[in-house]
Amino acid sequence: MLTTTKYRLLEIIPGATLWLSFLLVISLSFVKPLWIIYFILVYDLYWFIRIAYFVLYLFISLRRYRAVNKINWLDEVKKIGNYEKYYHVVIMATYRENYKVLHTTMQGLVNSNYDTKKLIIIFTRECGQRAGQAFEEEFHQSMRKIKQEFDGKFYNILGYIHPLPPPDELQGKGSNCTWAMKKFKAEVVDAENIPVEDIVVSNFDSDTYIYPQYFARLTYLWLTADNPHKHSYQPLTLYNNNIWDAPSFARVVASSTTFWLMADKARPERLFTFSSHSMSFKTLIEVGYWETNIVTEDSRIFLQCFVHFNGDYSTIPMHVPISMDTVMGETLWQTIKGQYKQMRRWAWSVEHFPWMITRFFNNKNIPWLKKFRYLFNQTEGQFSWATGPIFMLVLGRLPLYVASYRHMESALVQNAPFIMEFIMVLAMAGVVFSAVINVFFLPDRPAKYKKIKWLAMILQWFLLPITMIAFGSIPATDAQTRLMLGGKFRLGFDVTQKHRR
Known about the structure:
Structural class: alpha/beta
Number of strands: 8
Strand content: 5-15%
Shape: globular
Strand order of the largest sheet: 3-2-1-4-7-6-8-5
Radius of gyration: 24 Å
Number of helices: 18
Distance between the termini: 51 Å
């Protein structure tokens, strides 16, 4: 293992590279504006190609989504047989979510097109010392109501209170779920002699509403996999539980995230786990559960398994949806802050970079091509996340202004603005396609909103350039800078507020 000092240097690399790129583009725009104009044109072209690929993969994934969801997967599972022995454990870490949120989640689970007596539900709430004593007591009351209403409909419903973790652990979802699963194993699995290889774990956020086919589809993929313990299973995440109520900018961010994740489903060879996902309990135990000292445990668990199995591990796209909340606070300002913090937390996945370098370096059994592919996808994605919108929409104009001020009359200077505009117009095809697809995934319009609201759902996409910078580049730059600086600048686990009208 590399030394702590070298690991710290690796943490600095992403942020340092990012800021060096910004400084070079800005300084060279004044010194060598033609160089930067060439660079921006090539960069814009690169992004246009990326968007073209995005539209293609989104279209492929949409076709698979429609095909998958036409099939009755419980019937397919019954044809295979031997599925009754498997248990599905659903674990959900909670912080301050109220009864309404937890009840909606339970309603989705009980409506499953599957034998719910094979489902074990675990809610694990942060203790009063972290969430507040009132919220701990509210959780106890909510669990009593939930157990009373759903009594006899599941194999078991458990409610845990996660004590404050030790100093070497982060107060967040990873430490909470790891503690709860160890407790569950000792008190239920071991006590009842349930084979760990017969348990499938689904780690959901507390606002996750599953669609009826989720567990049937998951079980089918489990039964037909070459080795089910060497795969994670990733649903399609829709952020639309409260999308009609959320502000327009939050809707654009939520839908953009859904489409990006959906496009990735067409490329499973590069797919990580993200947010709510499922995996083998046996494998989870083997890799030491979710790491307890990081923020982005949802994607790190994939990397843990990938290294543990020497690269022989992958994520299978389910193409069955789940729905979660669009970010929404009680006020507009709370929504803006909550959206920013959510995107910054997701961008904190840059913390995987030094981890991947050190583990990949020390594991000679993983094929080098797999190492390169995952490392490149991770680092290029983080860099583009922070730089793309800034380069295209802001800094890309700077060398043109400098060249114009200096009265440079070359053909490149004269034509560059038109070329950039032409590329941007072509790229808008991706925005138009997203707007059309967005309508397809919207839930039914609540009766309290008039039909004119549909127009707002389409026109909102004109906000995309703003949201790409405000809730894309800036929080990604923030995250990489914090990792670079380290110490007190490191992120803790920011909990996204769950609010519904």
